[in-house]
DNA sequence: CTGAAAGCGCTTACAG
DNA sequence: CTGAAAGCGCTTACAG
């Protein structure tokens, strides 16, 4: 549309050098006379000057833009994360470019490339669960990467922000145990991810603490879908040793399980106790409102953006000051706590 | 992190000029000898060359990045739109920077500014419903803007993509009429938006066609929330002339209304027919699965990105070719059709 | 207090 | 077929 005015044109009109204009507009104008300053600001205002950040970035080597790579924004798990990221980023004056990969490694690599070319200052990355080994595009990547939700070993990764799934599952299972349930099943969504493994650990730990033996038949591994909740619940109802409670890997599973239980005339939580992992907050909409472990998704995004940007800025400081290799602000994995939300108490 | 190699360095190593390297790497290399070409590609590969798009953009005046401004990605209405936008954008080789405004005009203006500074090629904008009049930041904006979901008159706007709410409401109401319902209420979420007005028009039109007089008491205006659905349903049940069906402004309202009806021992749809406007696809999770008007949200984002990018590219073509004022690809409002999803048929 | 100059990494006429 | 040169809009030492 309209062409923007440049500092060169402002300089001409103000009868000063472009250096002076640049300094004034960047508030590095301690040494500039009040008169010049006013004149320049007036002209900038008049023509509605907007700086060309491309030109600036070319010199400063910072774009104040970060990338967010997630599987799918439509998956209700991710909007809160995305929102957390954007909130923190904009607090710091950063923008975020967001990318959907559908968990496809090819698309992940493509986006890492695109973001690198766009010179983003950093990337927040929720990678595919299939991504098992070190991968070229990550190794080659010239941009700092921070992992969320799922863990992954890689030297280019400057940090990780994940949910404390072990603790959450422990809380969920302990809650059921506290209410007197003893035959607690676990319907897992999958077991290949660190997420799922953490939850299994927590479940086992809670049982172990009370010296309740783990019944392998009580652990059903499938996928994070409503239909799987229905099926798994059906399987559990046909076990020789009847169950009295279920810890569900996520809330879609929980909804499915409840549907099945009701079909069979069982009441929740009077007959069968249920706690779900509240991936996507839907559980609160089904009846009976379900007791769940709330995932700190918003916090995850927020924290991730904070860590990433702090690292970015520290890296830059170090480069400017000492030109030596810099130490990261925080290199280790951050575990975010979950919360037990009791919506309807069992027994 | 690692510094990227530049075309200058490639040129040195290959013993050619940077112009040659640039041409080869940009596939404008028809005139370059096969040997030089191969040599250059080999070196680029070897050092894992990634172009600096800042530098390129500075010259070409295109960033291949568009902005997406929405109220809140956590609102389940928007992820599908965002996904549609990103899908189409990445098809065209564009990235998208996304921004949450919480419907605050101040934040909208801030983001329009930020995006302008970042030199995005265009902006897709779902503006606040409170934004009634022409507004400075939009007028001043140097970037083409395309509006989605909500309409707004402004000369800087190159187009609009909205849902055909009138048609949708007409379908919903007609469906209920076809099933024999005659006392059809309408629980609206609000009436200030063009969205809500369109729906009211469709409702009125359907009734008018069958020569059924509109009963003002049957139209309840509130907000797009579950609780309002509960309240409005309660009000409707106390009307002198009893209703036999409800058209709900969105699915949160529908869920609330159903909850109330059930509480009063009424069956849906046997006693009271219900059709909701399926803003957020949640309706399918409540029982009984609800008949709804499906919003083409994904399509809205997809179409919007397509129109915007086509306009951007046309604008550029025209500038290169004739340097004259260009005609927009499509300036008018695009109405996207809704779809009636019958999940449980009434009567 | 201010300016002249170099340069960020690239593209694009233009010349040969 | 290839190179020298100008320039995109800005920042940053350095000099005065």
UniProtKB/TrEMBL annotation, chains A, B:
InterPro entries: HTH_LacI (IPR000843), Lambda_DNA-bd_dom_sf (IPR010982), Peripla_BP/Lac1_sug-bd_dom (IPR001761), Peripla_BP_I (IPR028082). PANTHER family: HTH-TYPE TRANSCRIPTIONAL REPRESSOR PURR-RELATED, LACI-RELATED TRANSCRIPTIONAL REPRESSOR. Residues 5-60 form the HTH lacI-type domain. Keywords: Coiled coil, DNA-binding, Repressor, Transcription, Transcription regulation. SUPFAM superfamilies: lambda repressor-like DNA-binding domains (SSF47413), Periplasmic binding protein-like I (SSF53822). Residues 305-332 form a coiled coil. This is LacI family transcriptional regulator. It comes from the Bacteria. It comes from Aminipila luticellarii. The lineage of its organism: Bacteria, Bacillati, Bacillota, Clostridia, Peptostreptococcales. One of its GO terms (molecular function) is DNA-binding transcription factor activity.
